[in-house]
Specification:
This is Outer membrane protein (OmpH-like). By secondary structure, the chain is mainly alpha-helical. The protein contains six helices and two strands. Helix 3 packs antiparallel against helix 4.
Length: 206
Amino acid sequence: MLKVKRLFSLTAILVTAIFVNFVAEAANAQSGTNVAVIDIPMVFKGHALFKRQMEDFKVEVEAAEKTIGAERDRITKMIQELSSQYKPGSPDYKVKEEEVARQQSELQVKMTLQKKDFMEKEARIYFNVYDQVKRTVAAFAERNNIALVLRYNSTEIEADNRQSVLEGINRPVIYQNRIDITQDVLALLNAGVPATARPQNGLIPR
């Protein structure tokens, strides 16, 4: 009878220990930080609005380059005419030479200002899209109780490419298991869903 009581006592202790351990683990899980990762370069690559804006920007740059090229060709033709039609040192030669120099200077200034303008436009495109991505990620994380979202790179490291290997070594995220929200965020962005809207089916962390 004593052995039976001891057996029941031991069983009760084990059950209690298991229950306490289970409760402790559950509490730790609830108090833990939910973490997700996102591949920002992939987001930009798959962002429909960003790609369209960059395509329009490329067309604008190419048109400007074509115009600059035409002006450069015209000035080159003026230089050729200067050497073939005017006598060096003559009054007409000096007038034409000054005109060529003036137009060359104006073209250089135009190119410099245009390059600055294009760089600013490109920066604004990247900034606006990144700001939209950040707001969408923040709203998505809040709706899904995600406390921390880290950047990571899903691109495979090329073993025979030194630059790729060095970049891979310096990646902040070494391993992730089903906490990648890249496609979820892209779906929101490309569907035109406002950052404050609730996610549709399938737009929760996998």
